[in-house]
Amino acid sequence: MSVTLGFLLARAGVPTAIIGALIALSVWPQTWKMLWAPLVDTVGNPKLWYGLGTSLVGGTILLMSVLPMTRAEVPVFSTLIVISSVASTLVSMSTEIFMANQTPPELRGRASGWSQAGNLGGTGIGGGIGLLLAEHIPHAWVSGAVLGAICFACWAGVLFLPRLVRTAKAPSYLGELKGVALDVWAVARSRLGYLALVIMVLPIASGAVPWSAVAHEWHASGDLVALVNGVGGGIASMVGAMLAGWVCDRMDPKRAYCGFGILVGLAAAGMILMPRTPAVFTGFVLLYMAMVGMGYTGYAAIVLQAIGKKSAATNWNLMAALSNIPIAVMSTFDGWVHDKYGTNAMLLGELALPAITIVLFGLLVVTTRRRARVS
Fold it and tell me: 5, 21, 60, 144: which has the fewest C-beta neighbours closer than 10 Å?
């Protein structure tokens, strides 16, 4: 959505605001996913949930690739985007169960780095491959078929994971759901837990700039977008994620996350001072994606630190659902600001909003620390 479809729709003349809204639509189901996370936590095998998710994601990508890239098809794209997004939550939930149950505390930062390297790297590399194929092969379905096959093939990876032994057994499904609710409440009411919940809703390191839709302002070709915002951006975000994992094992993840958010904003705002050339687009987008990879790893490390092992999918996705709210909002906001005030205002907002909210969060941390000491 953010690479291939965004670029093709922009080239077809669809307004940036609509593209931004579609990108946001791909994120909004991620804000509701805690509603069905208890099913993954309590029913069936995580490996099978993973397989169902990858199959549905691959199938919807294939269907989107055969649709005409016109404004008239936006409602159909919207439906498929929502289905694909919901399916992707099954992939992430099953992955998170294994992460929470098999990662020792001293490796949580690095595990988070690997997780977000796959998340962001897959988005960029997959999107880049899709765009390159769509640009150079006359049959549009080939791009979707290749990406769909890659998604389905990911299922093979979980076959090598050991069988998951759940931490507790309840006598019934309803009993397990009750246990899930108690586990989630225990996390949410702790200071570590509610601070993690609060920081998730702040617009920090959202990575919401629709680069593929505005690339023409830097005279970037389709191939360059595919390489930079796609494959190159995926690799850059993977490098950033892995580096941030090492950092998060050596300092408080919340502080690291805030720092990464400022770096993302600086990378975006820095483009305002530079000439609009393909070289500038290449360098700054790669830098931006690397910083976003760091930010996403900081978020994952905060969640792993807060949730514990029980009801991992539900606890993780309660926080992840909240964290996707600012991503969806920023995607829509960036598209609206671009069309109303221009690209420079959009890029400046990437720095200003995180900086303001980080200051407010710092005040909350200080206040709650004092209260904890008094009590």
Answer: 21
Residue 166 belongs to a domain: no
Q: Do 221 and 345 form a contact (C-beta atoms < 8 A)?
A: no
Spatial separation of the C-alpha atoms in residues 150 and 306, rounded to whole Å:
33
Domain assignment present for residue 165? The answer is no
Q: How many domains does the chain fold into?
A: 1
Which 3-state string (H, E, C) describes 93-107? Answer: HHHHHHHHHHCCHHH
Place of tokens 């003349």: 13
Residue 172 has pLDDT above 80, yes or no: no
Residue 356 lies in a domain: yes
Question: Quick count: other Cβ atoms within 10 Å of Cβ 63?
Answer: 17
Tens digit of each residue's pLDDT (9 = 90 or more) over 315-356: 666 666 667 777 777 878 888 888 889 899 999 988 988 888
d(CA 336, CA 196): 29
Q: Does residue 28 fall inside a structural domain?
A: yes
Q: What is the pTM of this model?
A: 0.66
74's tokens: 């936006």
Residue type, 200: M
Return all residues near 158 (Cβ < 8 A) that are at least 6 apart.
Answer: 46, 47, 50, 51, 94
**Closest-CA residue to 260 (of 243, 276, 274, 275):** 243
- pLDDT > 90? residue 80: yes
Range of the domain at 193: 4-160+171-374
User: Which is nearest to 38 in space by CA: 321, 309, 317, 300?
Assistant: 317
CATH code of the domain containing 183: 1.20.1250.20
